[in-house]
């Protein structure tokens, strides 16, 4: 066994012990720890931002695209927002200990399902340092220990953030090992973490399709698949075109590096010419590159940066100022396109037709479906869940933004008196 593996085994054992301490900690103590974390983030802002500046400088030298640098960046405003998110988690109800489906059996036994922590959660994620705080705060609130492995691009930021978290935990009389970070960048350690099933109860990857595929294929631990998925917006022939313009631009350009940003615009062919006449100036104003199927090209000839779609373009999560465009005959054509091109995250229909609305809602296989709204709403804070640990696009256990309840499991609890009969 290598020294690296031994180190991970030690982290796993420490995390499992910490998980027991967290599972038995009262809500007041967990909330106190969160309050101290928020205070420590503010008190140590200079050190955190200095560490983040090192990551930004290294990212620029490595030639990271602007969209990736934006995901990586922390500044005073964003750090203040992260601290506010932690305090918001304090205000949320603690799901641990709540009971569901309580009933009395014929023999007199009272039977219920009680929520409890999952245990130890391993999270592998890429260039989003705020994720470190989101994961830690949600796991702490739900009594879960966590082992984190961030991307190379955020190394200095994450090390500093975890140092702040662990200091806060000790001040709140909780184990510092409740939140641990794998500091060595070796990719081999990711594989070791995925096989640490003696200690880790669930793996959550946050990143691109390659990361999710690797985790799914190599983990001996249950994996929550999420975050990746092509987001679509279908403009139906009954849509209000003027209102559609704002929704399209918001979904695509408000923050194109986000996983819920629009990737492919599907337009009913009957209204395509009218929509594109209104939309083209906005595409140019926002410096959007349009990758369109051949049939749509003549209708988009006023777009400054336009090219014909090639193989794989409609299967690409752009995470940039690039928008795919395709024409469809109706809502069923839109759904057929979405089934073929990995619609599993966030998808929207713009329409005034109730039948088309219901067809889209029922036919879309996405974790979140919107009617006359932007795909950018898929977010734990927007949903009132507080921060999120991930956006799940699988179909078991949790779907969409994973908040507090999604980080719990349950146990059956039966209570009997001496008069109960088996």
TrEMBL record:
The gene is proA. InterPro entries: Ald_DH/histidinol_DH (IPR016161), Ald_DH_C (IPR016163), Ald_DH_N (IPR016162), Aldehyde_DH_dom (IPR015590), G-glutamylP_reductase_CS (IPR020593), Glu-5-SA_DH (IPR012134), GPR_dom (IPR000965). CDD domains: ALDH_F18-19_ProA-GPR. Signal peptide: none annotated. Gene3D superfamilies: Aldehyde Dehydrogenase, Chain A, domain 1, Aldehyde Dehydrogenase, Chain A, domain 2. This is Gamma-glutamyl phosphate reductase. Residues 9-284 form the Aldehyde dehydrogenase domain. Catalyzes the NADPH-dependent reduction of L-glutamate 5-phosphate into L-glutamate 5-semialdehyde and phosphate. The product spontaneously undergoes cyclization to form 1-pyrroline-5-carboxylate. Its main location: cytoplasm. It is found in: Cytoplasm. Belongs to the gamma-glutamyl phosphate reductase family. PROSITE patterns: PROA. One of its GO terms (molecular function) is glutamate-5-semialdehyde dehydrogenase activity. Keywords: Amino-acid biosynthesis, Cytoplasm, NADP, Oxidoreductase, Proline biosynthesis. Pathway: Amino-acid biosynthesis; L-proline biosynthesis; L-glutamate 5-semialdehyde from L-glutamate: step 2/2. Its EC number is 1.2.1.41.
């Amino acid at each position: 066994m290598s020294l690296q593996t031994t180190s991970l085994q030690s982290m796993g054992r420490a995390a499992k012990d910490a998980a027991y301490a967290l599972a038995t900690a009262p809500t007041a103590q967990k909330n106190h720890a969160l309050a101290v974390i928020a205070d420590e983030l503010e008190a140590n802002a200079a050190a955190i931002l200095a560490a983040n500046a090192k990551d930004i400088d290294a990212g620029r030298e490595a030639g990271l695209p602007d969209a990736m640098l934006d995901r990586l960046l922390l500044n005073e405003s964003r750090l203040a927002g992260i601290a506010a998110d932690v305090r918001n988690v304090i205000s949320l109800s603690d799901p641990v200990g709540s009971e569901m489906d309580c009933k009395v059996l014929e023999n007199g036994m009272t039977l219920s399902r009680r929520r409890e922590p999952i245990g130890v959660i391993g999270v592998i994620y890429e260039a989003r340092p705020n994720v470190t705080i989101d994961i830690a705060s949600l796991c702490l609130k739900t009594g879960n220990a966590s082992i984190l492995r961030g991307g190379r691009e955020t190394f200095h930021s994450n090390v500093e953030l975890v140092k702040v978290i662990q200091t806060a935990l000790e001040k709140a009389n909780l184990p510092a090992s409740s939140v641990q970070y794998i500091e060595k960048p070796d990719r081999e350690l990711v594989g070791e973490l995925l096989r640490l099933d003696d200690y880790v109860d669930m793996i959550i990857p946050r990143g691109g399709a390659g990361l999710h595929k690797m985790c799914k294929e190599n983990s001996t631990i249950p994996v929550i698949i999420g975050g990746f998925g092509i987001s679509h917006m279908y403009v139906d022939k009954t849509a209000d075109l003027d209102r559609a313009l704002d929704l399209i631009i918001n979904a695509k350009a408000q923050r194109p590096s986000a996983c819920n940003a629009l990737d492919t615009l599907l337009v009913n062919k009957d209204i395509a010419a009218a929509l594109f006449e209104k939309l083209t100036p906005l595409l140019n104003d926002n410096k959007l590159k349009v990758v369109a199927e051949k049939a749509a090209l003549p209708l988009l000839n006023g777009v400054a940066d336009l090219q014909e779609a090639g193989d794989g373009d409609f299967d690409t999560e752009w995470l940039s100022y690039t928008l795919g465009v395709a024409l469809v005959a109706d809502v069923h054509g839109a759904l057929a396109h979405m089934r073929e091109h990995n619609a599993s995250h966030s998808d929207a229909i713009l329409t005034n037709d109730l039948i088309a609305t219901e067809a889209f809602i029922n036919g879309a296989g996405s974790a979140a479906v919107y009617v006359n709204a932007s795909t950018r709403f898929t977010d734990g804070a927007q949903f009132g869940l507080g921060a999120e640990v991930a956006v799940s696009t699988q179909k078991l256990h949790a779907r969409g933004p994973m908040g507090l309840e999604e980080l719990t499991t349950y146990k059956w609890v039966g209570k009997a008196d001496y008069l109960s009969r088996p």
